[in-house]
Fold this protein.
Amino acid sequence: MAFREWKTLAGAGFGAALLGGLTGSAFAGDALKLTELSPNGADACFGRVYDPAHLKAHPKQKVARIFFYYGHDPVSRPNEEPGANSDTSYNGFLITTVRGAKAPEWAGGWCNHESEDGKSGPIRCGMECDRTLASLKVDDRGRLILSNLSSDIYLDAGSEEELGTAEYDRQALGKEDDNFRLDPMPPATCKAEFARIDPIDPALGPPLRERFKPDQAFCYGRDYDAAHMSSHPDQLTQSIRVFRGPVELASFASGDDVANWPDGADIAVSVTTRQKGAKVTQTYSCQGEADQWRCAASSKTSNFSCDIAQKEIFLKRGANGTIMLANPNSSLAVVDLCSKAAVGKTASDDKVYRLESMPQSACAP
C-alpha cells in the first residue's frame, strides 16, 4: 500500500504553504504595476543558468539555475484547486535549482516600492510573516539585480532550531546565493522552468474536480481477500468505500458555491476492519490543494468527545481511473478517532489505498 510523496502543508515546503495560506491576502489589483520590471504591463521573465566554470569558481554558491517571474501565477495549472481562484496570484515568483537537484524549489511574494506613495524607492518582495523574498533593481541594461535573498526562503520559520545546524545548512541556500544578476528572457522560458516543479502525468487523466461534478454521486472502494490480509498482518482495513451519495450531494447544494468546487464538498468513508465486522462511516469535508483533495473529518453526522477537525485524509488521482486515498496521520475510522491509537502518524499498514470505481449500490449505507 506504499505510495510516494503525499503533500501536507507541513511537508510541502514554504513556497507551497505560502500559495495555499495567503490566497485571500494577495490582491490581484496590486499585480503588474512595477513598470521597471514590465514597462508594457505584460508578464516578465528574468533568469540565469550558471555554467560549470562559474560554479567551480564559486564553491559556496549552491544555486545552479535561477529564474524570477513577475506577473500572473506561473505555478498553478489545471489541478484540484477551485477554478474561481485560478487567477489569484502573487506578483513575484522565484524558482531555483541547486547543484545536483533533480527538481527546483519555488516561493512567491508580492512586490512593491518601499515608499509612502508606492511609486518610488527600492522594490521589496514580501512574504508571509513579514519575511523578505528578495529586493529587486533593474540595471541600465535591463538586467534584474536580485538581492537580500534569505538562505531559508524555502524553510519554515524556526527551522534552524528544529533541524539543527548541520541539517539546516544542508537544506538552506549557500553563503554566496545572493546578488544575482538575471537576464531578460521570454515569459515562456520561465513558465517552462516552473513546469519542472511537478510535471503533469498524462496517464493520470483529468483532475478529480473535473472527473467528479458537484451534483454527481460516485463510489470507489476495495475489498481485500484472505490472501492479501494474510500477507499484510499489520493492515486493519478489510473493506473500504469512498463515496458521495444523496446526503453529501444535498449538503453541497444547500450551502456551497459551485464556482469554488471542490471546496466544501463532503465525502463519506466507510470501513470494516478485521477485528470488527460492523461497518463504520465517517464524513469528511474537502478542499482542493495543489494536485489533491485535503479532507478534514467532520462531526456533521456523529458526536465526538474530542476535536476531530485536525484528522485529515487526502484524495489524489491514480492510474487507469483509480483514486488514491492517503491516511498519513491516523484519520480513518479503522481506529477510534478520539483514542490514543489515533494520535500521531498511522502506525498500522493503513496509510495508502488504491481504490477502483464501483456501482453506487456498493456504497449504499
Remarks:
- The CA atoms of residues 215 and 250 lie 8 Å apart.
